[in-house]
Amino acid sequence: MAGDATTIARPYADAIFKHAVETDKLDLWSEMLELLAAAVRDPALSGLIANPKLNTAQMTDLMLEIGGGYLSEEGQNLVKLLAVNDRLAVIPEIADTYEKMKAEYEGTIDVHVVTAYSLKPAQEKLLSNALKAKLGKEVRITSEKDPELIGGFRLRAGDMVIDGSISGKISQLATELGI
């Protein structure tokens, strides 16, 4: 199912991205897509989107009302197009795909680090610099604490995943021992 949504979302994200580059509105589109994606991810709204009793006009009006003054005329047109084509449910995938295209265009990469203990700003900076040297891109780090890792870290940067956690090493050892 997620694969289907990504396949459906890609042409929309591609068209939005090309238009955003041409009009120099990359950040504006990021904000509008983020708002729409957050709304569609809400369980109550996703239930309404799937409800066959709501017609296209009602769904369009609802989404435009949620967008309020945050959607440009082009953003409103996108909502209308997606509603007519019964594609409102794929807005989160459109937003995610758009953000990946934008990051690639800007030469940045988002890195998510999970550690057993909170990272200090100096540690984040050191990690950011090391990853920038390795990946050749500007690095934006987000981090979170997960005591279940016991120690070490788990890092995700695009398709690259590094599990340097103690719990990961224990799981790997258990697998090798057939436990």
Mind explaining what this structure looks like?
This protein has 179 residues and is α+β, with helices and mostly antiparallel strands. It has 2 domains: 2-103, Peroxidase, domain 1, CATH 1.10.520; 108-177, Glutaredoxin. The protein contains 8 helices and 4 strands. The chain has a 4-stranded mixed sheet with strand order 2-1-3-4. α1 (2-23) runs antiparallel to α2, α1 packs across α6 (91-106) and α4 runs antiparallel to α5 (73-84).
Strand content: 5-15%
Please summarize the sheet with the most strands: 4 strands, mixed
Helix content: 55-70%
Q: Give the integer mean of the pLDDT values.
A: 91
Going across the biggest sheet, name each strand in turn.
2-1-3-4
Element order: H for helix, E for strand: HHHHHHEHEEEH
Number of strands: 4
| CATH fold group of the largest domain | Peroxidase, domain 1
CATH class of the largest domain: Mainly Alpha
Secondary structure layout plus pairing:
Elements: H1 2-23, H2 26-41, H3 43-49, H4 56-67, H5 73-84, H6 91-106, E1 108-115, H7 121-135, E2 138-145, E3 153-157, E4 160-163, H8 166-177
Parallel strand pairs: 1-2
Antiparallel strand pairs: 1-3, 3-4
Helix pairs in contact: 1-2, 1-6, 2-6, 4-5
Keywords:
single chain; 179 residues; alpha+beta; Peroxidase, domain 1; Glutaredoxin; 2 domains; 8 helices; 14% strand; globular
In short:
This protein is of the alpha+beta class. It has helices spanning 2-23, 26-41, 43-49, 56-67, 73-84, 91-106, 121-135, 166-177, and strands at 108-115, 138-145, 153-157, 160-163.
